[in-house]
């Protein structure tokens, strides 16, 4: 399996990174974050979500954010949408790319969205149909692909099945999320081998959390498995609701440092991302969780 | 190249990790650290150094530490020695394994030990001879193997040459240090290919710093190159004198999490190491820099 010559990074900091922040972040700050990341060359910046403001209050300003967003030509700004109501709100705010999510474990599905995995697919079908009617490109997330905080082990074949279903619904790409950051190299390889028997590797993105320090190593393993798209979060924003104080998403800067070192093209300026990471971390009153970010700016 | 079934971890936290700490750490604390790490199953714990107390005041208590150390059968407790005077002091304190150090770059050699690389080997010859006379096992360190803060790029062939010289001097094992944590996977692979043309892979240990977040990924690459010995530091103790605020040695807990995940034996109890990492970090008044350590104890 040849490593890709070019990789697409999907920046999820403004959504996945910020969604669990306890203190409200002004829309101006989020907007500046999204625009800085796009200016640094990130080709995809997930900028918000249209979920219940009661369940995820931090994302309540997403409509305003999308309305005010100055879009760069060629940059995609997907929003997470859970249902028809969310999609309608997203469309109303000018969203042109959306992301749907399901789980690869029953325990997580029940606790996160209060339905079974099978039911979640049934519920998403009309959302996907409506998105297609509006020519909204769709991305799919599968969570808990390497383990579940409730059910433990997750079979690679189950992930492959769920990923295929998302493509059937009309998703262009499926992001496989190690939601609790539990996976190591061989598990990643086994997972990718199983999923790639059902869907093309170029439709797969990997989404790692650095909870146990394995994020960059798991990206490396995925590259060696021919994967060319990765979700990541500036300054390692985000945490793990299942492990208080634990690290969040793999940091964009750390992944970029790896890709630059391997001579893989991204079109992204590492220093600009690091500066944005230092800036948003200062806004949140916390240390930069990206090691490359800290070292580059020291 | 087959991955090893068993890996030996060399814990360097008490020496490499603590040596640059600004506030004096009581010998009792260092002693407890060394003994806790040995009890957790670390087969090698580098416990101190016999260098100039003026240059490295934090290591001034090493003689007392070695005198008071309760040794576990089967555990090795090497000390760093720079010269004959240091070796004599180490022998006097009961040290039975020692480590010598050289650099793979002229700039670092001059600034760190004020002599050329060639001269450093000449100076170490009598130290190695005296160590042999006392049946002291020797380990060798080569620093800056993937780049130098002064000279930039370092040729893999130069590292190979220096590693071979250390074996010629009587070292059992050579630890190749990415002192500034600059390397990525392909550089590690090229380095190991070059060094393995000169010395057997079982004589090579790798020593990574996590400055740019690449530590665990570089361990993974080295495993895939057949390397079975790694230096690491509990709680990621240590910093980088060339990048203020940057991360230190790759954390023992993060490496162990990888090895456990790959089914590679170490004989080390990850939870005990994580608890020791939390304890020493509290003593130093800092956060645990190991991601796996934080997650495991959350």
Overview of this protein structure:
Chains A, B: This is hydroxymethylglutaryl-CoA lyase. Chains A, B: Pathway: Metabolic intermediate metabolism; (S)-3-hydroxy-3-methylglutaryl-CoA degradation; acetoacetate from (S)-3-hydroxy-3-methylglutaryl-CoA: step 1/1. Chains A, B: InterPro entries: Aldolase_TIM (IPR013785), HMGL (IPR043594), PYR_CT (IPR000891). Chains A, B: It comes from Magnetospirillum molischianum DSM 120. 2 copies of one chain form a homodimer. With 298 residues, chain A is an alpha/beta fold. Chain A has a single domain (11-297), classed as Aldolase class I (TIM Barrel, Alpha-Beta Barrel), CATH 3.20.20. Chain A is 42% helix and 13% strand. Chain A has 12 helices and 9 strands. Chain A has helices at 13-17, 27-39, 62-68, 84-92, 106-113, 117-133, 156-168, 185-196, 215-224, 252-261, 270-284, 291-297; strands spanning 8-11, 44-45, 48-49, 79-80, 97-103, 137-143, 173-178, 204-208, 229-232. Chain A has a 9-stranded parallel sheet with strand order 2-1-9-8-7-6-5-4-3. In chain A, α2 (27-39) packs antiparallel against α11 (270-284) and α8 packs across α9. The model of chain A has no long low-confidence stretch (mean pLDDT 96). The A-B interface holds A 181, 183-187, 210-214, 216-217, 219-221, 240, 243-247, 251, 253-254, 257-258, 260-263, 290-292, 294-296, 298 and B 181, 183-187, 210-214, 216-217, 219-221, 240, 243-247, 251, 253-254, 257-258, 260-263, 290-292, 294-296, 298.
What is the topology?
Two copies of one chain form a homodimer.
Chain A: E1 8-11, H1 13-17, H2 27-39, E2 44-45, E3 48-49, H3 62-68, E4 79-80, H4 84-92, E5 97-103, H5 106-113, H6 117-133, E6 137-143, H7 156-168, E7 173-178, H8 185-196, E8 204-208, H9 215-224, E9 229-232, H10 252-261, H11 270-284, H12 291-297
Parallel strand pairs in A: 1-2, 1-9, 3-4, 4-5, 5-6, 6-7, 7-8, 8-9
Helix pairs in contact in A: 2-3, 2-11, 7-8, 8-9, 10-11, 11-12
